[in-house]
């Protein structure tokens, strides 16, 4: 059964039965995933009470009034995540506090310009968000919407960049969306932008440069074409190893689990041999936990978003392999281009990718389409068997 079933005492939305005498409440505070036990039998009434408690916690976190020790006084996190006096958790308040603190350090005209950018641009656009909710994708989308020059855009970003650097230094956040990023061009994002797939030899080198859960994750990504958000939300309940299929039912975006945006996004995929092998190898690591298939090997906790994947697994693996860096989403482009280059049917590839029709495949990946073939999945499976790639160890 899926996570949403309440059979056996489990509940959706971050509340579930932990034992016969306790309920687990799961939420994120100050960029940290928190799991706290309530010493209550997981009866229907108590699970409902826990849901209300969690909703109240999330409301207070959103308002910046949450006090950990008031809800969980015996938890070790009550001390480590105690709210700093006067620390702002929403972007509008954090920007204003940072701006006030910079007045004695900057020229008057700079202070004035930063203030105008804060009040006229950033507070209306992102002010209501918590610091941890702003993503690089949101910033890129904002950049793409602008009609002014690139220099002006970079100047407008300066107070946001400065505030986030200070928040990182003060340990209010664990991830800074501005790290190693500077806007380089102003144009609407397109689905076919930056398609730069890995070659078969590069895929082989990448998989040879990692092992365990990291290898299983990347091999599965290369041979299913799932988006990163879909990969980290995949549950063992979505996997049918006997029938060799998986069902994509959800995506995890900014730590929030969501349903696919389109009907085509919810799909059942045939597992190609390398993807099947990766799942068989992954069973030993996470199947007994019964929920997310892929975990961060450093913490043995489910991946929360793509940031830790890039930092702790993907980037080090590419460096060891001596492969030119491309972002992890290129595994999806590699899957599509590999299948199409092998002569697989574009309609079948579109279904595997979760596109609503095959015309998007032609538009985005047309240069890799040599022909249309009816025996979908067989040619690329033969390619896997014949390219010399080491297979994942069976679990």
What does this structure look like?
With 395 residues, the chain is mostly helical. The chain folds into 3 domains: 7-80, no CATH class; 91-169; 200-386, hpI Integrase, Chain A. Helices cover 45% and strands 10% of the residues. It contains 16 helices and 10 strands. The chain has a 3-stranded antiparallel sheet with strand order 1-2-3, covered by helices on one side. A 3-stranded antiparallel sheet has the order 4-5-8, with no helix packed on it. A two-stranded antiparallel ribbon has the order 6-7. β9 and β10 form a beta hairpin. The longest helix has 20 residues, at 44-63. The model is unreliable at 1-11, 187-193 and 391-395 (pLDDT under 50). Belongs to the 'phage' integrase family.
Percent range for helical residues?
A: 40-55%
H/E element order: EEEHHHHHHHHHHEEEEEHEEHHHHH
Using the 3D structure, state the CATH architecture of the largest domain: Orthogonal Bundle
Number of domains: 3
First-to-last CA distance: 23 Å
Q: How many E-type strands?
A: 10
- How many alpha or pi helices? 16
InterPro entries: DNA_brk_join_enz, Integrase-like_cat_sf, Integrase_catalytic, Integrase_recombinase_N, Min27-like_integrase_DNA_bind, Phage_Integrase
Keywords: DNA integration, DNA recombination, DNA-binding
GO molecular function, one term: DNA binding
GO biological process, one term: DNA recombination
